[in-house]
């Protein structure tokens, strides 16, 4: 069963925030914030829409490094080298402490191997899903330590920058991942797989991911 978290969705542009509100409107514990990363209030974990090598010198990743310091990027890169032999697979995420008690964690969650378009793929879903799983596993590991749990999880618009994914599609795939987090299956069969695949790949009956 999924553990409850408060989900914040942030972007500086009204159009993206409107897409978030549209796609997440029926999902619980979601707050949409029209904001830059630098202006966010205190929170527990920020998701970095990263590349597979932890090179965080552009986009919102650069803002995260500027805020927390370059040692955060070095630690992330060392974890990638140690755990993934130098290339973190898409669809994975890990939690890295920041050392700042007001913003204690980031989740490093690649949406792409290297910067480039991911439009027409399910990589936004995969990165969002991986981030939610990483937070879930972190919180399970901290059952006896309430103060160390992640209660507020902040997502940027995954894949909307270098990835070139349209705002509505970013919000749709992220919302599907959160819905699946909230409602995990109770049995594994092909009917469940087909329902899940249709939710990921179709929008209003139209195939949008191949």
TrEMBL record:
<protein>
    <submittedName>
        <fullName>RNase III inhibitor</fullName>
    </submittedName>
</protein>
<dbReference type="InterPro" id="IPR002589">
    <property type="entry name" value="Macro_dom"/>
</dbReference>
<dbReference type="InterPro" id="IPR051220">
    <property type="entry name" value="TFA_Chaperone"/>
</dbReference>
<dbReference type="Pfam" id="PF01661">
    <property type="entry name" value="Macro"/>
</dbReference>
<feature type="domain" description="Macro">
    <location>
        <begin position="17"/>
        <end position="210"/>
    </location>
</feature>
<dbReference type="InterPro" id="IPR043472">
    <property type="entry name" value="Macro_dom-like"/>
</dbReference>
């Amino acid at each position: 069963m999924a553990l409850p978290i408060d989900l914040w969705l942030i972007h500086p542009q009204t159009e993206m925030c409107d897409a978030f509100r549209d796609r997440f409107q029926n999902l619980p514990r979601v707050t949409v914030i029209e904001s830059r990363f630098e202006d966010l209030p205190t929170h527990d974990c920020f998701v970095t829409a990263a590349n597979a090598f932890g090179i965080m010198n552009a986009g919102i990743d650069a803002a995260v490094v500027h805020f927390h310091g370059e040692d955060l990027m070095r630690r992330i890169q060392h974890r990638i080298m140690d755990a993934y032999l130098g290339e973190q697979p898409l669809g994975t995420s890990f939690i890295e402490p920041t050392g700042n008690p007001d913003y204690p964690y980031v989740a490093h969650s690649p949406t792409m191997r290297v910067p480039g378009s991911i439009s027409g793929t399910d990589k936004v879903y995969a990165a969002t899903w991986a981030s939610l799983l990483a937070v879930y596993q972190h919180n399970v590991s901290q059952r006896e330590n309430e103060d160390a749990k992640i209660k507020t999880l902040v997502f940027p618009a995954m894949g909307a920058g270098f990835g070139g994914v349209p705002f509505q599609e970013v919000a749709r795939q992220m919302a599907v991942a959160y819905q699946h987090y909230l409602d995990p299956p109770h049995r594994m069969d092909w009917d469940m797989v087909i329902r899940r695949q249709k939710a990921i790949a179709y929008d209003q009956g139209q195939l949008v991911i191949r």
